[in-house]
Please model this.
Amino acid sequence: MTRWKLHRNTLLVITADHGEELFEHGFIGHASTAIHATMYDEVLKIPLIFHAPSRLTGGLILKGQARQVDIMPTILDIVGLPIPTSIHGVSLLPRMKGKGEERSLPAISESISAGYQSTLEQERTVLRSIRTEDWKLVCTQGNEVEVCKLFNLRKDPGETTDLFHVEREMASQLKKKLHASTIQMQTKQLAMLAREKVRFNQDDIPRDAKLEKPVILSPKDQGVIRLSKESGQLVVSWTGDKKLTYVIQYDVGKDFRNLKGSIPAQGTRKVFGPLPREAWEPLPYWNPYRIRISPYGLEEYWSDWIEFSIEVPAKH
Model:
């Protein structure tokens, strides 16, 4: 690079995927190594360095927090490419040039209880957090309950004192923002999946895989799914070969309120959730729900369509 002077016109970004606990809270590692996920700052904080001599002034340290979702739009902005509207983050370039607001946006983080080593049971427990410069709310959602903790990062940077039942107004505000952000991201993901064309490659089928028309086991045809308490899950299961990738095709709602698309799923089970109550409450307005399932890309193996409805109990 030095010989051709490419280093003068090359963008170099240094970052990481996560931090590491070193017994600050009694554990060492992170979710996938300690089999114990947390949302403490030692796990969430990572380095983020941009080096581009032809585009950026060196030695600048930005105040306030940045987020991993901001990295891609920042790269695109620096090199002069358009930023897709589907991206969740924002470019940090205006802040680097002193033109943006110094106040940073809330950061959302998510993990399952044991990372990539999670069992099917552990995958049903989701940790989500929302972090501002002053506060962090961490919520564990699973088994139809939600347990949250609140930390004042200014006064308690070590996150040792849970203030969830003390600072009730702040806890309520952050909880609403966390739930709203979760719903927004999952709605965008669903919309993107609905537009995605499912393509098939013969090489993707394991040689010893058993191909057959799936039978949907859950939900039951013409059944009613009753979601309970503060969070819930929708479990879809079917007969088949667990080594295969399947496609769940859905046709939700009627008339002007109708959504169609396909969702890939590995194995013979797909769990949607857990989600906060705010995400479940609108679901009955989309009744009825119709789904069918096929091995990925094999049109001749579609299951029969089933139809079901969703109910959410009234608040007490």
